[in-house]
Amino acid sequence: NLDIIFVCMTNDIAPIVTLQALKHNLNVFCEKPPGRFLSDIKKIYSYHKRYKSKIKLMYGFNHRFHDSIIEAKKIIKNKTLGKIINLNGVYGKSKLITFNQPTWRTSRKIAGGGVLLDQGIHLVDLIRFFAGEFQDVKSFVSNGFWKFDIEDNAYAILRSSSNVYAMINSSATQWRHKFKIDINLTKGNLILEGILTSSKSYGKESLTIVKADPKNDVNEPKVKTKKYYKDLSWEREINYFVNCVQNNLDNKKSTSHDALKTMEL
Fold this sequence. Notes:
By secondary structure, the protein is α/β, with parallel strands linked by helices. Helices cover 30% and strands 28% of the residues. It contains seven helices and eleven strands.
């Protein structure tokens, strides 16, 4: 008599287990990525759409639950710094396999893709989270350094229907691990730098808020930096999902629709 199943499996199996669990009327929390291919999440999305009032489904886009991300989203939503003009993001680590993780991550048959699908998917999800949907994409992928049959770098320029632009680089050749997103708005900047993780390799998490008056370049912008020292993201994420299940609430965060749109990009 299970209530919830957590799917923490390899990318080839995760969508199969997720769909079967839904068909057994189980609430599902599935870690990212949703699968290897867009077709994986399309099947799940199509099935869940019919039964979402009864069965809860959530995907592990965990970065949405970090303090810096939550605060930046609030500022954007309140239009405190105006509208977004563009975003610039880098998420990089030094290898495709780090911290003695299993080697399936370098197998295209199992993983489906490399650093973009594994880690960069958070970056793709976050630019959607902050700026909405993007329609136009120009991109390159490369496996020129590690030489596996999966990408070790992905580079993309994206444009939304409202002419918001984003540039991203997901990298497995970033020798000093890095997470940074610059969000340029009409009245200032939001700079997210570092992300708290179990490895502690991405540095301290911070949000720098820059308030500027573009019409008056004589005045120096006001700069304030907030630093975060404790990672509460996992607890927030799970508590949110459990609350949706216990109280039969609609999941509005990290949904199957988010998974679908992120995989489309």
